[in-house]
Amino acid sequence: MSLPAHSALSAETQRVEPSIVSRRTVIASATAGVAALVTAGADAALAAPRAPDPAPFTVRMPVPRVLRPESTRGDTDLYVVTAKKARVEILPGTRTEVLTYAGMFPGPTLRVRAGRTAVVRHTNDLDMGTVVHVHGGCTPADSDGFPTDTLAPGRTRDYTYPNEQRAATLWYHDHAHHMEAEHVYRGLAGFYLVEDPAEAGLRLPDGDHDIPIMLRDARFDAKARLVFALDDFANRRTILANGKARPYFPVAARRYRLRFVNAANLRTFTLRLRHGGKTTEVAQIASDGGLLAAPAAVRSWRMTPGERVEVVVDFARFPVGSQVFLEDASGGQVLRFDVTRGGKDTSRVPDRLATLPALPKATGRRTFVLGYDRARRRFLINGRQFDDGRVDTEIKRGTTEIWTVTNDGSSSAIPHNFHPHLIQFRILDRNGRPPAPGEAGVKDTVSVGRGETVRLQATVGPYTGRYVLHCHMIDHASSGMMAQLRVVP
Questions:
Q1: Could you report the per-residue pLDDT of 431-461, keeping only the tens digit for each?
Q2: CA dihedral sign, ordered 432, 436, 437, 443
Q3: What is the Cα Rg of the chain in Å?
Q4: Is 401 helix (H, G, I), strand (E, B) or coil?
Q5: Dihedral through CA 181, CA 104, CA 64, CA 270, nearest 10?
Q6: Is 17 left (phi over 0), alpha (psi -120 to 50) or beta?
Q7: Confidence (pTM)
Q8: Going from the N-terminus, what domains does the chain have, and what CATH number goes with each?
Q9: CA geometry: angle 287, 293, 299, nearest 5 deg
Q10: Distance between CA atoms of 92 and 61, rounded to whole angstroms?
C-alpha cells in the first residue's frame, strides 16, 4: 500500500540518523511549510541498502520484565521509569540505537491491580519532550498524556492511575504531538496489565503461561539502524515480536494465554496459528477492554494499530517436538512456538468468562468523519486538523451516546481506525451488520476501513478535563488526524 506524503512535517521527519531533531524544529518547519528540508542526502539515506533479513527462528523471544514497585503505601504503589536511549540487539549480531523506557525494548511491563492506585514517576533523559499515555486507561486528565502536555528533557513528573476499571491488557506509549509516531516507532512503548481477583478465579493460564506479545514492524538500513519516515508502511518489512525479528519461543504441551498488542504505526495484522500446513483453532477470550462474555472459537484474528486480542492456545494438541507458526496474512511467519516438553495443566477456558457492563441509555448522538484533504495533503477529523487551542467536542462525564464513525474514502485505499481517550464503547454494527464475536466485547479502538461506517455506543469515564480522540494509525495522528475532547461536569 502506498501512502501519501504529509507536507512539510512529513518532509522534515524523513531521516535515518539515530539522533532526532527537536520538537520545536519540527513544529516550526511544519508551520513555515518548508518542504525543501528533505535534502538530497536524506533522500539518498532513505534509498540506501536495507539490512538483509535475518535468519528466522535463531533467537528466543523475550518476555518483557515486570517492573516492581519502588515502594508501597496503603493502596498506592510507586513505580519509577526513565526514558532514555539505549543500544539493543534487534537483528542478531548487531546493535541498534532505540528510545526506551528503563533501557528496555519494548519497555518493562506494569502489572497492576484493579482498585489499587499506581503512581508512575517518569524521568525524561532524552533530548526532546515526551508525554506518556496509558492506552485504554480510565485516567484523570492531568495524567492521561494530552499531546502537548510534554515533559521537558531532564525533568520528572508523576502520573497517577487509579485503575478503577476491568482487568484488561492495556499498553503505554509516548504521545508527544508531531513526534508520537517517531517516538513509538523508535521504542517508547510497553505493556500495562490490569488484573483483578475475579479474573484470577476463572483459572485461565497464568504465571509463566501468561505471555504478553508486542507486535510491530520496522525498517533497518545496512548498518542495522532504524529508518523512520512518515507513511513508510511499504518499507517496514521486518516484523518484530517483543523486539526480535522472527524469534522462537519454547512452550510446554499445555494451555497458554497469549496477550497480543499491535504496536505498529500503520500495519494491520491478520494472525493465525499453523501446524503441518493446517490452521489451528484457538479461543479468543478478550479484546481491548477485557474479557469477552464467552470465548470465541477463531482461526484468525485481525488487529489494527493499538488494538489488543487475547487468545488461549492449547499446545497439548501437538506432539512434543512440534513447531507451530504464528503467521501474518501480509508479513508471513512472525514467531515459532516450539513444543519442547510435556506439562501439567490445571488451567481451563470456562464457557462463560464475564458479565459485560450493561449498556446505559444513550442520551445523544454524534458523527465523526475520518477524511483526507487531497489539495493540502492533510488527514482530518470532521474536516479539521488537530489544534490544541480548539475544543472540537464537549461532553458530560458519565454520558452514554451513539457515535457514528465513517471513513469517507477520500484518502484512496488508506484505512483508518478510531481511538477516543477516557471512553470505552461497544460496537453496535459495522456497515449495518452486527459485530463479529471477537469485536462484541468492550473496546477502545476500532478499525474503520475505506468507505466503512461503524456505530458505537460510547460511555465517557468519570473524570473531567482535556482529552483527545484520534486515528491510531499513529503516523496519521502525528500529522494532525486528532481532535480535542473536553469532558465537563
A1: 999 999 999 999 999 999 999 999 999 999 9
A2: negative
A3: 21
A4: strand
A5: 30
A6: beta
A7: 0.92
A8: 1-355 (2.60.40.420), 365-488 (2.60.40.420)
A9: 55
A10: 12
